[in-house]
Amino acid sequence: MMVLPKIIIAQTFKNTLSRILLLAATTGYQIRSLAAAAASLKVDVLFATNRCHILEDPWSDHAIPIRFDEPRESAAVLIEAARGRGIDGIAAVADAPTTVAALTAQALGIPWHPPDATLLCRDKHAMRERFDSAGLPVPRHARIEPGSGALPPGLQYPCVLKPLHLSASRGVIRVDSPEEFAAALTRIRVILNDRQAPVQAEEYVEGREFALEGLMSHGELKTLAIFDKPDPLTGPFFEETIYITPSREAGDVQEAIVAATRRAVKALGLWHGPIHAEMRVNQAGVWMLEIAARPIGGLCSRALRFSVPNEGGSISLEQLVVLHAIGKMPRNFAPAAPASGVMMVPVPRAGIFASVSGADAARAVPGIEDVVITVKPGEKLIPLPEGSSYTGFLFASGAKPAAVENALREAHAKLHFEMLADLPVLP
């Protein structure tokens, strides 16, 4: 259990109550984690979610109903709702609400990421163009416009096709031939439910993949963690599984990752708040894949804990995000464990989830801190590239990154999922 050092509460709040505006989807793991983090810090939360505005508070959280796809209208609703409520900070979970959060923060005079920066983060083609203009290494790329079905001029195989706006590797497909290109383009447009949707095409970048978790403070990047992704992500799909920190890469490689991220966030205009960056590294340097104006997704944040010097206990990433949002982030903190990691347990195959066995055996593996199965019996599971979820999460810590990785792999091997066939519905 994560315990906030008492001195932080005493020095920061002094019996006063702060309040944040939290924008999040009605579903998702992080909304509960961030709300619990705020409560542990005695920070009040005003929720804004994409819940149905017709129903009367269906989740009993008194959330303000907004639409993420109508950012200006939704921001106007939140600006009006914030009047007289003393909003001290803003936080957003997932990509969809970030532009609403940015417009609201701008109007309320609260430091956050600019609206234009959040829009760039949610458009893979526009992001590539901005990185290219800033002199960052980028693969040759093009936007496949509606009606087009051919590899854009100047691109070569292998290449990667991806939706402009989806996240978590959904719809991302490597292709090595014209036949694969045509099939993948059709498949992505089916996922988008739009056979004329524009699609990003870019040449495949070889290399090892990493992630950087950070906080922007008035334009300055604070690196919280660099994650290794030890599984090879070579396609045709790019399902992320294991994140391990600290990175085992040489110091100069880690410095290059941080330096490239600094250049990339500056190019996008990200200013104040969490960021999550993904990149590949090869002999040519650091290639930024994408940057999100939010913290790491799902329950993965549980892999990060931070200690404050000379204090007991630890604080979670969500607690750090809340403290940062209200301008009360501790000056000095460090990782609470020598090494830690998370495995996003992949969907074994398409079908209806029936049950899982071996969870207790997985928990008993040395180094494993928790096994969280998030899928429910009867739930339909779809693997990537169509799917967008995992069956659960494994968390581990240890003295060295290699020990953490081994624990995660051993625990995963003990899980056995029973899946039922997804029978078609007869007319």
Keywords, please?
four-stranded antiparallel β-sheet, 427 residues, four-stranded parallel β-sheet, 22 strands, 11 helices, alpha+beta, disordered N terminus
Describe it.
This protein is an alpha+beta fold and 427 residues long. Helix content is 28%, strand content 28%. The protein contains 11 helices and 22 strands. Strand 9 and strand 10 (220-228) form a beta hairpin. Helix 3 packs across helix 4. The model is unreliable at 1-16 and 52-60 (pLDDT under 50).
List the topology elements.
Layout: H1 6-13, E1 18-24, H2 30-40, E2 43-49, E3 64-65, H3 71-82, E4 89-92, H4 98-108, H5 115-121, H6 124-133, E5 141-144, E6 159-163, E7 173-175, H7 178-191, E8 199-203, E9 208-217, E10 220-228, E11 242-245, H8 251-268, E12 273-282, E13 285-292, E14 305-307, E15 315-316, H9 317-325, E16 334-335, E17 339-345, E18 351-357, H10 359-363, E19 368-373, E20 380-381, E21 392-398, H11 401-413, E22 416-420
Parallel strand pairs: 1-2, 1-4, 2-3
Antiparallel strand pairs: 5-8, 6-7, 6-8, 9-10, 9-12, 11-17, 12-13, 14-15, 14-16, 17-21, 18-20, 18-22, 19-21
Helix pairs in contact: 2-9, 3-4, 4-5
